[in-house]
Amino acid sequence: MTAVDRAVYDALRARRVTRRMSDRAVDPETVGLVVRAAKFAPNAGNRRLQPVVAVTNGTKLRLLRLISPGMIPVPQAAVVISIDVGRAASYGFPPRAPGLYVDVGTVAATLLTAAQAAGLGACPVTSFSRAAAGRILNLPETVQPHMIICLGYPDPTGGPPPMPKP
Ligand SMILES: Cc1cc2nc3c(=O)[nH]c(=O)nc-3n(C[C@H](O)[C@H](O)[C@H](O)COP(=O)(O)O)c2cc1C
């Protein structure tokens, strides 16, 4: 194993969900770095039916938190992964085709790794109102949000992160 391979493996091993985030701002370039990593995710047929949007506006972040029972961190930014069911239909996929959701996972894993590389803490959230999130983000009806990834610097005084309730 080369030193680079080892560093990549060590980063994968060290990554943990961050549920306590500090109030240190995350600059837009760093958020952009994480978002751009989505294009490196493996993707069925390379169709890219999972649009990713960055959220850095404080009001929108607060609203997203309000409609997300599973969002434990208070994030400084977020990335929302959706499924474009309109484009999926143009390829003949029904909205609930399993592959569409598998690719939400591959994008999520890639973004979590990119956040780790950028020195950020991250926490995926799937417990939220999809309809409300779509409205907060002004998404078209055919773009359905499926995962919010909270971003922020880990709170150094935070202690071990609490586990979410089952
Ligand atoms: C699809 C998916 C949904 C998740 N939803 C939530 C969530 O709503 N809230 C939360 O705090 N963590 C959520 N997580 C994070 C998991 O609880 C976490 O990854 C798991 O406990 C393992 O911890 P680790 O990532 O630190 O190794 C989710 C993870 C995945 C993959």
How would you describe this protein?
- By secondary structure, this protein is an alpha+beta fold.
- 38% of the residues lie in helices and 16% in strands.
- It contains six helices and four strands; from the N terminus they run ααβαβααβαβ.
- The radius of gyration is 16 Å and the shape is globular.
- The model has no long low-confidence stretch (mean pLDDT 94).
- Residues 16-17, 19, 70, 72, 123-127, 164 line the site of flavin mononucleotide (FMN).
Write the layout of secondary structure elements.
Blueprint: H1 3-14, H2 28-36, E1 52-55, H3 58-66, E2 77-84, H4 85-90, H5 98-117, E3 121-125, H6 130-136, E4 143-152
Antiparallel strand pairs: 1-2, 2-4, 3-4
Flavin mononucleotide binds next to strand 3.
CATH topology: NADH Oxidase
Structural domain count:
1
Output the radius of gyration: 16 Å
**CATH architecture grouping:** 3-Layer(aba) Sandwich
Describe the sheet with the most strands: 4 strands, antiparallel
pLDDT < 50 runs, ≥5 residues: none
Shape: globular
Fraction of residues in H or I helices: 25-40%
Strand content: 15-25%
As laid out across the biggest beta sheet, the strand order is 1-2-4-3
Structural class: alpha+beta
What's the mean pLDDT score?
A: 94
| Distinct helical segment count | 6
Which ligands, by name, code or SMILES, are bound? flavin mononucleotide
Assembly of the depicted chains: single chain
**Could you name the CATH class?**
Alpha Beta
Comma- or semicolon-separated keywords:
NADH Oxidase, alpha+beta, globular, 6 helices, 166 residues, four-stranded antiparallel sheet, binds flavin mononucleotide
